[in-house]
Amino acid sequence: MARFRLFFAVMSVAMLAPMQAARAQVPSSRQTPPASATSRQTLTPSHAKNRSIPVPTERPQIQGPDLVGKWSGTLIQVQQSIEYSVAVEISAQGASINYPEFGCGGTLTRIGGTARYVFFIETITIQAIDKIQKCQNGAITVARIGDNLAWEWFCVINGDQAVAVGTLSRDPDGGQAAIRSE
């Protein structure tokens, strides 16, 4: 159990760092907007010396680790000590997820990444009627560890935190070649 708590702590810090960096880049309402956002105003050379106009820069897309393929493994929902299996398929076009025991699944939308981590939002689109409320939308952080994926799922259900962690392995019959050939 201590191993899972340590893993959760490390993954939580990894998830917070990009969010804090993004917050730092959001301009405050007290900053002067760029000239294009103000009313038409002609800047004279004396104004130009005293005014700094930010130069927009485009951040390069960070690719993160290679995740293309079919992956599966067992997750442990920490709060209830529930184990269940998960199957994930990731391609250049998108990603899908399936929870066989619960009869539900959905899509994963990549929302960001760093050199080591990739972040997804999970949207449940298939839910078995007799298993209602077993599957919830959530946020997922993935890190490549050798030939495996470290996986953390997080959501809030009725004001309570739910976290599941585990390791996924590449399916031997669903490697990169099978995905890319579709």
Question: How is the topology of this model organized?
Answer:
Layout: H1 2-25, H2 45-50, E1 69-77, E2 82-91, E3 94-99, E4 104-113, E5 117-127, E6 138-145, E7 148-157, E8 160-170, H3 176-180
Question: In summary, what is this structure?
Answer:
The chain is 19% helix and 41% strand. The chain is α+β, with helices and mostly antiparallel strands and 182 residues long.
Question: What would your notes on this structure say?
Answer:
- The protein is an alpha+beta fold and about 180 residues long.
- The chain has a domain at about 70-180: T3SS negative regulator GrlR (Lipocalin).
- It contains three helices and eight strands; from the N terminus they run H-H-E-E-E-E-E-E-E-E-H.
- The protein has helices at about 1-25, 45-50, 175-180; strands spanning about 70-75, 80-90, 95-100, 105-115, 115-125, 140-145, 150-155, 160-170.
- It has an eight-stranded antiparallel barrel.
- A hairpin with a 4-residue loop joins strand 1 (about 70-75) and strand 2 (about 80-90).
- The protein is globular, with a radius of gyration of 22 Å.
- About 20% of the residues are buried.
- The model is unreliable at about 1-10, about 15-45 and about 175-180 (pLDDT under 50).
List keywords for this structure.
182 residues, alpha+beta, 3 helices, Lipocalin, disordered C terminus, disordered N terminus
SSE succession: HHEEEEEEEEH
What topology, given as strand order, has the largest sheet? 1-2-3-4-5-6-7-8
Q: Which geometry do the CA atoms define? A: globular
CATH C-level class of the domain at 69-180 is: Mainly Beta
Distance between the termini: 40 Å
Within CATH, the superfamily of the domain at 69-180 carries the name: T3SS negative regulator GrlR
Helix run count: 3
Strand % is: 35-45%
Radius of gyration based on Cα positions: 22 Å
- How many strands? 8
Multimeric state: single chain
Please mark out the parts with pLDDT under 50 across 5 or more consecutive residues, or reply none.
Answer: 1-10, 13-43, 175-182
Q: What average pLDDT do the residues reach?
A: 74
